[in-house]
Specification:
Blueprint (H helix, E strand, L loop, with lengths): L5 H11 L2 H23 L2 H17 L10 H31 L3 H5 L4 H17 L2 H11 L5 H8 L3 H20 L3
Helix pairs in contact: 1-2, 2-3, 2-4, 3-4, 6-9, 7-9, 8-9
Length: about 180
């Protein structure tokens, strides 16, 4: 199969569900794609995860794919979007860690209790609802719509420092509200 072109291998994958054709493409591109993913992510496991997602998608969507031109650039673009999605997801995860770090450890001792979790959610919702309008808007834009500080400042018509101050105060209020939870 090594002598077959990428196009011929893709055609075999599409027409005959040829796993060997897929394997050949995988071996042709794995190393260079891994290097590209690792260069951006600097984490072996994350780079491999993104790469695996690209190849899984290639196999699952083999029948619908209509690739114009060489396969290499297509795979690099697919990988680029997987890496960007991974980074976006990781950043959202980090944004939410700050609120969980504000929850006292004693709360997690009861975390298996559904009532405790419902009560935590209620406290968070009430605290957000009690915030001044601009602070609440800033918090929601940050945590639910996941906008950047600059995007929030532009949307709300305030300075970036005001957005940062509002977020700091909002998180402080949440932390205080949850500190009373026993």
């Amino acid at each position: 199969m090594e002598q077959l072109s990428d196009t011929a291998l893709l055609e075999r994958m599409q027409a005959y569900n040829d796993r060997a054709a897929f394997d050949e493409l995988y071996h042709r591109y794995w190393e260079q794609l891994y290097m590209a993913a690792y260069a951006r992510l600097q984490q072996d496991a994350d780079a491999k995860d993104c790469l695996q997602e690209v190849f899984v998608a290639l196999w699952h969507k083999r029948r619908e794919l209509r690739i114009q031109g060489p396969l290499g650039p297509y795979l690099h673009v697919a990988l680029k979007y997987r890496v960007l999605n991974h980074l976006r997801s990781h950043q959202n995860y980090q944004k939410h860690l700050d609120i969980f770090s504000a929850i006292p450890p004693a709360v997690f001792d009861r975390a298996d209790d559904r009532l405790a979790l419902a009560e935590i959610q209620q406290i968070i919702e009430q605290t957000i609802a009690a915030m001044p309008e601009k602070m609440r808007q800033t918090y929601i834009l940050s945590r639910q719509e996941q906008l950047t500080v600059r995007e929030m400042a532009d949307q709300l018509g305030v300075s970036q420092q005001t957005v940062k101050n509002q977020l700091t105060t909002a998180l402080k209020r949440l932390k205080e509200a949850l500190a009373g939870f026993k």
